[in-house]
Amino acid sequence: MALTRDYKQTVNERAHADPAFAKALLDEAISLFLAGNPEAARLILRDLVNATIGFEELALLTDKPSKSLHRMLSRTGNPGMDNLAAIFQAVTRKLDVAFRITVVDNA
Known about the structure:
- This protein has one domain.
- Helices cover 66% and strands 0% of the residues.
- It is built from six helices and no strands.
């Protein structure tokens, strides 16, 4: 019998124990959105929310119903920019993260 562990449980425990891991997940979600892979970004962001802030607290912070937030961050979700910004803002506050944007000109 093979010993396996649930992916979501592993992510959840690691994000709780290692703030750098949670921040890396946030960075990956943002990078995926910017690179044009919103589906993967939403799923990573959903795992991060579950592991850190939780959908009930996110609902309070964003003034959106938790069921709507679950749908927005699902595989087929389609959050608007205002909702996405509110979600990122709540998660970055929870993780105590600030963004620094660097523009690279490859011309």
